[in-house]
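Page 42, continued from yesterday. The earlier attempt failed because a stray header line got pasted into the input along with the sequence. Redoing it now with the clean sequence only.
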Amino acid sequence: MSRVANSLDNRPIEYWFSILKEEFLIRIDYEKFSIQKLDREIKNFIDYYNSNRLQSNLNYLSPNQFVKLSTIRC
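This time it went through. Structure tokens are written below.
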């Protein structure tokens, strides 16, 4: 929870959940998913997001690629 009058505290997690809703949860047929399968699929999405999904704010690299490149430059 954010501090009083400071909505920026939750910005990263709010962004993450918006991506999860826009790119993953909207495409699911909930009647066919069990809790275990949903858990597995969310973990797969997290892996996809970190390893394969290119992001314009990271110079069209995945987060993992960006971190590797950042550590090499330091």
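Notes: The helical segments are 11-23, 35-51, 63-73.
Reminder to self: strip header lines before submitting.
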